[in-house]
Amino acid sequence: GAVVSQHPSRVICKSGTSVKIECRSLDFQATTMFWYRQFPKKSLMLMATSNEGSKATYEQGVEKDKFLINHASLTLSTLTVTSAHPEDSSFYICSAATSGRYEQYFGPGTRLTVT
Amino acid sequence: AQSVSQHNHHVILSEAASLELGCNYSYGGTVNLFWYVQYPGQHLQLLLKYFSGDPLVKGIKGFEAEFIKSKFSFNLRKPSVQWSDTAEYFCAVTDDKIIFGKGTRLHILP
Predict the structure, then answer these.
(1) Among A38, A96, A95, A37, which residue's Cα sits nearest to residue A67?
(2) Which residue in chain A has the smallest CA separation from B41?
C-alpha cells in the first residue's frame, strides 16, 4: 500500500514554455502533499507543502508564481513550472502524507530538462 | 533552524562488513527521526523511523538505528551488509517540516 505515482517521469521542454507534473496517491487519500527538488549530489529541498483545497505554503526562496501548485483533490497534486528556464532543470519529487507530515510516501520523481 | 548532517558522503564496503552511517541533527526540541533509502533507479522508501519509546529502532532488511538524545545522533547500522544494500541513504528530521541530510551513497562490493 501507500503508492505514489508521478507523471511524466521525464520531460524535455523548451525555454519559456510551461510544464505540468502530476502527483497521485494511488491507494490512499493524502491530506498533505509535498514537492521537493533534488539537486545533483545534494539533498532534497522542500519547495512547498500543499493541503487539499487550500493554497500551498512555499518555502523561503521558492517563487510561488513560477512554481504553481494545485492540490485539487485528496489524491492529486500538480506542480506547474511556468516559463521554464534551463536553471529549472532538475529532479522534482513529490510525497504524500495521510496525517500531518510525519510519514511521507514518495513518488518516483520527474526529471525535467529545459533546453 | 534545524539541520541534518550526514558525515559520510560515499562509503564503500565489502559484503558481510558491518555498516554504520552517521547522522546528527541540530534541534533542541522534540523531533521525529527517519532513515530513507533510494535504490538505484527507484524512489525513496522509508527504512525506519523513531517517534518515541525505545531509542533502538529496528527497520526493514536488517537495519537498525539508535537515537542518542545527548549526542543529537541517529546513526544507522547493519551488522552484515549485502550487495543489494547498494543505495543512497538519507537521514531526515521532522519537527514542523521535514529536513533531509545530503545523503550517503553506499556501494557494496560483491
Answers:
(1) A37
(2) A108
Task: State whether B97 and A42 contact (CB < 8 Å).
Answer: no
Which amino acid, residue B65? A
DSSP B22-54: --EEE-SS--EEEEEEE-TTS--EEEEEE-SS-
Q: Choose from A39, A103, A105, A110 for mutation: most chain B CBs within 10 A.
A: A103
Which tens digits make up the pLDDT trace of A37-93? 987 766 788 899 988 888 899 999 999 999 999 988 889 999 999 999 999 999 999
Contact B94 A102 (CB under 8 A): yes
Q: Which three cell numbers stand for residue A92?
A: 522534482
Q: What is the DSSP letter of A59?
A: P
